[in-house]
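We were asked to recover a plausible sequence for a given structure. The inputs and outputs are reproduced exactly as logged, with field labels preserved.

PROBLEM: sequence recovery
POSITIONS: 206
GIVEN STRUCTURE:
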């Protein structure tokens, strides 16, 4: 009923959670890199009902999904509102449910370096670390913060070298891998600040 193919056991699936308000080329870039570097079969974009740490509500789900599909039309990428359908907002909750619903699938949590820096503030972040491999991408402006991140320090000995990134989906967690892909300086907040996104939604001139 959740709209995903059933014959997925043993597949390695990357999960890129985000507000996608709006989706941009930075998201598409790390997704293509994730497929390649981590040897993933698929990536699911989990378009969030709303980041629990962000005070402002994002644009309507339907608009964010439509934009995400336009930005990332790729045969191995699924754009999904599954968190809204599961009624989850916290990543640990989402992962617990997905792992129960799709036993045998090797899920890998994907995120940018900015999220590693604040990862220790997430609900049940220790549980996430010890239950799901995590793939992290360099992001402009976040390298230093990520290096000093509490999660990175506490789990330093479980870090997989970037040269071995392709093994990540098969690693028993805790396991995380930081990959230094060429960085793209795109962000949703910059697009929103330019005013283009909400103006697009109102159907006004670009
Ligand atoms: N240019 C980028 N390089 C690397 N990672 C990125 C980039 N843009 C987004 N990400 C990652 O993609 C995920 C979803 O990002 P999100 O939807 O919050 O976009 P954002 O551009 O970070 O938004 P905002 O500027 O509003 O914080 C996060 O893990 C984020 O770190
Ligand atoms: O679970 C949490 O406590 C938590 C706190 C902050 C962010 N997240 C998730 O991190 C992902 C990236 O969020 P965002 O808003 O930076 O795109 C998205 O899936 C959020 O639901 C999750």
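RECOVERED SEQUENCE:
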């Amino acid at each position: 009923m959740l709209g995903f193919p059933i014959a997925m056991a043993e597949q390695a699936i990357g999960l890129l959670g985000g507000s996608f308000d709006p989706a941009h080329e930075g998201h598409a870039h790390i997704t293509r890199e994730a497929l390649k570097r981590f040897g993933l079969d698929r990536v699911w974009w989990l378009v969030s009902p709303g980041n629990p740490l962000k005070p402002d509500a994002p644009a309507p789900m339907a608009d964010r999904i439509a934009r995400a599909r336009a930005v990332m039309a790729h045969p191995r990428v699924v754009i999904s509102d599954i968190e809204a359908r599961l009624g989850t907002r916290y990543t640990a909750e989402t992962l617990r449910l997905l792992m129960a619903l799709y036993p045998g699938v090797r899920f890998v949590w994907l995120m940018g370096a900015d999220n590693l820096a604040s990862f220790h503030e997430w609900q049940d972040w220790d549980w996430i670390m010890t239950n799901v491999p995590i793939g992290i991408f360099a992001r402009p402006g976040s390298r230093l913060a990520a290096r000093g991140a509490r999660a990175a320090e506490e789990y330093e000995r479980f870090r997989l070298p970037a040269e071995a990134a392709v093994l990540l989906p098969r690693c028993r967690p805790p396991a995380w891998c930081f990959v230094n892909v060429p960085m793209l300086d795109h962000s949703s907040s910059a697009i929103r600040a330019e005013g283009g996104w909400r103006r697009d939604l109102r159907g006004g001139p670009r």
